[in-house]
């Protein structure tokens, strides 16, 4: 009843294949974007902006990268945080060493750096798959973080280990208020999401999915495995790199290797699994879920126990709940929250009738 | 030269520890083609529980069987609530499920026993053996020797279990083909529960030896991750392969740390095993003793 496509006819293929063919979707998307741009900066407090919304958008971007590699191209990777670290340090060094480089150019170039590293570490994927590849990506994770930590050049020979990120300056304007950073990140993430959506539904995405479903068959059909797999690694690492640069500059405000540990890689992996493997929407849902879960748990503890719980117990409990959720989602709904949303839309379409 | 041998022996014996953890992986992989990412967490959980029971006042000989029972229970619960619902899913899905399991086990371990670092006392000294030091000038501790002997015994026992017993035949049949094994009447669930229980016991032994060396702490789960490259080099399905690969990784890591480490500021140990594994994969994807991987379209 609420979500019907009745009466909407497509007179041409262009109309049929547009990004959002349904009027309801277009209206919904426009409202959401308008809300995110106009309403949120006014309504949200600084805490919400800088502790929830900014990391949410950034991690959704990283999850997008992970999903391109894992969900679309089917190459299991446990090293996304390593590529984020490459992006963050590339951005830091570019701004430090190239005088007058515009911030956005630095961010884009740090994505390119991460993509280059991603291609190198993606090379083993040409010979190995599945579990073996997962271990190979662990190698990238540990090696990158170690290299960034040990070679002083990357940190500009800072001995403290924690490097303060430079300010974000675009066209002479310094982005300091949370809402300014939020809008900047929103714009970057929106643009990259649109690009990802278009890649995923175009020939690039079809090639990835063909390789994912059966690489030998894809090769027989004339797809170059070398090209497709490395392309997936490059684009995925680009997203992770840009995400990492933003993570360091807009969220952490420091550049340190220890922030990009394997824990973060696992968190990104969980975002993709819970959100929905192989969906764009799922990245945003999953990232939001993983970020809000601790906040929600804290509130629940407060409500039920009336006092703050010891932080080590809270984090252990959080771990258990994450683990159970992962297993639960894999068993009950392997396609994640995005699939649940899709089912809801189906229901809304027929409601209040059953068939 | 004595220094060289000391590094070599130290590395080999550290490798034995990796082998012990990797053994648990191989057991489960052989029987259910599940890559159990949670093995490291099981090592941590097992030894933490063991120490916990001792702290509750149980003597050594009582704490041991209680922990064994606990690990068997963990294995069976895993089989019931994680593996059984996911039967016939792809290997990647199962891997991700065991990553989830890792989080659950680590979380439960910390909820039950707290987060502080503990000592585990096995009554074995972790000090250089006097006469070896005097005779050959090589530093080898008693604990290292015990670890080596235990690893040898366990591998022999497991090899016998796999090749000589009825259960072992069942295990190999299940590993070969789930459906075929089921159809000739091999009780799949019992076999799986058994394998997970055995892996739990192996984890306990590995954890006790490791805990005696470096204390029982959360970092154990990360060290245990190094069993993954060991597995890759040894081949996923080979028990002897794991031992050899463990020795290779242990020795290579120590040599790199001692001879190359000072040049780049140390910490090579953290990633060398993984890079070694990747290089190995490029040359020999099935590992040293693994079965040749045949993929059918």
Describe this structure in words.
Chain A has a domain at 24-260. A two-stranded antiparallel sheet of chain A has the order 1-4. A two-stranded antiparallel sheet of chain A has the order 2-3. Chain A has 355 residues and is mostly helical. In chain A, 72% of the residues lie in helices and 3% in strands. Chain B is an all-alpha fold and 297 residues long. Chain B contains 13 helices and no strands. Chain B has helices spanning 2-32, 39-55, 60-83, 91-113, 130-136, 142-164, 166-176, 178-183, 188-214, 220-225, 227-234, 239-264, 272-283. In chain B, helix 11 packs across helix 12 (239-264). At the A-B interface, helix 6, helix 11 and helix 13 of A face helix 4, helix 11 and helix 13 of B.
Please describe the topology of this protein.
The complex is a heterodimer of chains A (355) and B (297).
Chain A: H1 13-16, H2 23-43, H3 46-72, H4 80-97, H5 103-122, H6 130-150, E1 163-164, E2 168-170, E3 173-175, H7 178-201, H8 203-213, H9 215-220, H10 225-252, E4 254-255, H11 262-275, H12 280-305, H13 311-332, H14 336-350
Antiparallel strand pairs in A: 1-4, 2-3
Helix pairs in contact in A: 2-7, 3-7, 3-10, 3-11, 3-12, 4-5, 4-6, 4-10, 5-10, 7-8, 8-10, 11-12, 12-13, 12-14
Chain B: H1 2-32, H2 39-55, H3 60-83, H4 91-113, H5 130-136, H6 142-164, H7 166-176, H8 178-183, H9 188-214, H10 220-225, H11 227-234, H12 239-264, H13 272-283
Helix pairs in contact in B: 1-6, 1-7, 1-9, 1-11, 1-12, 2-3, 2-4, 2-9, 3-9, 6-7, 6-9, 7-9, 11-12, 11-13
